[in-house]
Every structure is written in C-alpha cells, then in structure tokens.
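Step 1: inspect the first sequence and its tokens.
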Amino acid sequence: MEQIYNKLVRDNIPDKIKSNGETPIISILDNDRYKEELERKLYEEYLEVIDSSGENRIEELADMLEVLKALAQLEGKTLDDVIEVAKVKVKKRGAFEKKIFLEKVISE
C-alpha cells in the first residue's frame, strides 16, 4: 500500500517511518522550494491552531513556532531576532493585551 503526502516534515519523521517497518521516499528541497513548503506548512499549522484548544492548542502553537524559526533562518536570522523585533513593535504600537477592537475612524 502507498500513501502520498507531498509535504514538508520534521527531520526525524523518516526514521520514525522506518522504525514502523515502512519505507519513506524523500527528497531534499532547494532553498526556493523549501521556503514555499515552509509557507504552506505555516498555513497548515495556522489552521490546526484555529481548530484546537487547551493543551492541544499549545502543541499546535509549538509546531507553528518551529516553522517560524525555520523561516527566520532562511532570512539569516534567529527566533531571538524575531522576538527582539516583536519587542520593538510592542514598544511602538503596543501588544494585544487590552483586547481593543477598532470599529471605525471618523475624519472631520
């Protein structure tokens, strides 16, 4: 039996498949395709975060964080770099702690 996945997976998944007595067929992506697949994976993880709750949501957020880390690495940055930029943005624009929902702006 054959199952088609055609998706980016974590580094240890092929070994896990082998340990189950199955044969993974893999390829190594070039940077352009890797970026495309990371972006697809980010969207996949986003949908999983939206559909989850509780501890499961924390697991999905962790998966999303791993994808963000890999995307940052493609830009020659680290997750710490991303967090530093986020801190600067919080100082400039604030966070989302006050739960503010902007309905409209009226200009005179």
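Step 2: inspect the second sequence and its tokens, then contrast the two.
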Amino acid sequence: MIAVTQNSNIPSITTDQRREVDRAMMEGHGIALAKMMENAGRELAHLARSRCRGGNHKGKRVAVLAGTEGSGGGGLMCAGRLNNWGANVTVWLSSPTERLTYVPRHQLSSLDRQGVPIYRPAE
C-alpha cells in the first residue's frame, strides 16, 4: 500500500515497502537492481532538468544528496547524468563510503573518475 503524506498529495512508501518492490522486480521480472537504479537516476535527472533552472543546467550549481542504498544509487546516477549535461555537480554522501552497497559504490567510483566533487562524512 502506498501512503500519502499528511501535507502532500505525493505518494510515498516505507523502506520495507521499497525493498519489497525491489525484490519483486528482481525475482518476478528479472530486472537487475543496477538497471532499476540507472532508470531511477535517469528519470530523476530529467525531472530535475525540467523543473529547475528553466530546463538548462549548463554551468549551474547542483547539489546531490545521496544515501547508502538504492535511493543513493539513483541519486548518484542522477548526479552523473547532470554532470554529463554540463551542470556543476557536487555530491554529498550521508554515510561513509564503506556503508554504500555495491551499485552505489560503483557509481561513486565513476563520479570520482569524472572529477565530480564528493563530500564524504568522517569515517
């Protein structure tokens, strides 16, 4: 069941519900977690571009806040796409790198190679 927050009409789900959706997509439909994160990051980047800065991110400053699990991976994928589109992206991690799961850690490595500034909390 999707819950609607009290002051918003935007649906939200709990962490356990999100994990169950991920499990169902992987086991029931054969969609890899990395692919789901890639799709989420791409759609988030398109949404950010369409709703912010008049659709033009070139040279604009963008901060991406990323967690440790799937949503963090989507956020990091989004950061990479916005960077490739010419935005001046900075990433802020909520947890030390060691707490990232495999896919977000892989994407973080890619962002490092692209020269995207990444702020990590103390280990």
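Step 3: confirm your contrast with the notes below.
The chain has a mean pLDDT of 83. The two ends are 37 Å apart (CA to CA).
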